[in-house]
Amino acid sequence: MNDTNSINQETCKLCGLCAEVCPMKIMIKKGAGGISFRQDRLPLCMKCGQSMAICPTQSFIVKGLSYAKDFFEMSDPIAPDIVFFNLIATRRAIRNFKDRPVPKELLEKIVQAMTFAPPGFTPIKTEITVIQDTEIIRKALPYMIKVYDGLVKAMNNPIARLFIRQNVGSAKYKTIKNHVVPLMKSRLPELKLGVEDTITRYAPAMILFHADRNEENHETDIHIALTYGFLAAHVLGLGGSAMDLIPPAIQNNRELKRMFSIPEGNMVVGSMILGYPKYRYQRGIKRELKSVSWI
Ligand SMILES: Cc1cc2nc3c(=O)[nH]c(=O)nc-3n(C[C@H](O)[C@H](O)[C@H](O)COP(=O)(O)O)c2cc1C
Question: Is 237 among the domain residues?
Fold first, then answer.
C-alpha cells in the first residue's frame, strides 16, 4: 500500500495483468511474492485506469478512481441499439500484443477507413507509411532510444536547453521538460537493457502519418485520420494506440527516416501501433470532459 495506488492483497489473484498493461510499468510482479510498486515510477501514474479496467477481481485501486463510479462492465451494453456507441466505448489503448502478424487485408481495411476521415480542406495532405514488417520496427527501436537518450542529456545542458526551446517553441518545450524528460529518465535504463519496450511496445505493425511540412492544417487532418484508423482496428478485432513518442524520434534521426522511407521535406506527425490484443479488458472507463456548457 502507498498513498497513490494500492492492491487488496486479500482478493488479488496475482495474475499480474495490472503490471502488464500499466503504460508506465509502475508495478512489478515478483512470482508468488506478489505485486509491488516501483516507488520511482509512482509519480508517473496518469490515472489512465488501464490496470483497474483489466483486474479480474477489482483488487487494484488507483487513488481517485472508483470501480462503481468510473467504470462500466464490458458485458453491460451501454446503448444496445447504437452500435457506434458500443464501438467507441469499448476501445482501449492497446499496448500488449500477441506475437502474431497482422494480415495485410486488415491493414488495408484500416487504411480504407482513414480515407473516410474528413480533411479540413482539400487537397489531402495526409501521407502514411504502413509497416507490416515487424523486424523493421524492432530494428528501429535502438535508434529511438538513442534519440531520447540524447534529448535527456541535452536537457541537462543550459545552452542545449535554450536551443531546443527556440527550435520547438514554448508549448512543445513544456511537454518535453515536464512530461517527456521525466518519463524517459525513468524508462531509459530498461529500454537500454532491452528488458522493456515502452516506445514501440513490441507491436507487430505500425502506421506512420506524415505530410509536407509546409502544407497548411496537416496536423489536424492527420489526427482525425489516425482516430478513424484506431477505431477501425478495434472493430476488426485488432488493437492499437496513437504513440506520440515515436514521431519526434523519427523526425530527429536520419537513419529512422531512411528506414521508414519518409520523403525529404515531410514531417512525421503521428504514429499508431497495431496488433492483436494480448488481453481482454473486463470493463471500460467513463470520462467526463473538463467542462460542458449549454447556451
Ligand atoms: C494523440 C495521442 C498520443 C498518445 N501517445 C502515447 C504514447 O506516446 N505512449 C503511450 O503509451 N500511449 C500513448 N497514447 C495513449 C493514451 O495514453 C491513452 O489513449 C490514454 O491513456 C487513455 O487510455 P484509453 O485509450 O485506454 O482510453 C496516446 C494517445 C493519443 C490520443
Answer: yes
